[in-house]
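Researcher: Quick test of sequence recovery. Tokens follow.
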């Protein structure tokens, strides 16, 4: 759960920095929380203990994939948010994310680290570093 939570935080931070870098271009970038969606997570007994129990308890309240997509579709298509950028949406409304997700210096650091990582050659299927671009 900690890795999952960190990945969600990274999504918001990355989107915040992307929106900042796109300011003035007319291109928007927003983060969206779809809610707890019946995605098949933990369906094949890959959850145990408290997590498995928690999933069973909240099952009646989990959204269908269609319901979970509503906020994403709204942000992508609604004229009322066509010029909104750098925001976090929950249930089709702008919400303030956590303090950690509002840390602009963390967003900039995440962007810088991401640039460094994508500049590196990807490993080959056998695990060895692939050759870099020619020249």
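Model:
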């Amino acid at each position: 759960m900690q890795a999952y939570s960190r990945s969600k935080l990274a999504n918001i931070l990355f989107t915040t920095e992307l929106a900042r870098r796109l300011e003035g271009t007319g291109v928007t970038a927003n983060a969206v929380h779809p809610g707890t969606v019946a995605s098949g997570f933990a369906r094949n007994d890959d959850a145990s203990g408290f997590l498995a129990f928690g999933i069973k308890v909240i099952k009646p309240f989990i959204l269908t994939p269609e319901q979970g997509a509503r906020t994403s579709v709204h942000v992508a298509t609604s004229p009322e948010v066509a010029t909104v950028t750098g925001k976090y949406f929950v249930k089709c409304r702008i919400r303030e994310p956590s303090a950690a997700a509002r840390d602009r210096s963390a967003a900039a650091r995440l962007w810088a680290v991401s640039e460094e990582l994508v500049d590196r050659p990807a490993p080959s299927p056998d695990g060895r570093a692939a050759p870099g671009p020619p020249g």
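The chain has four helices and three strands.
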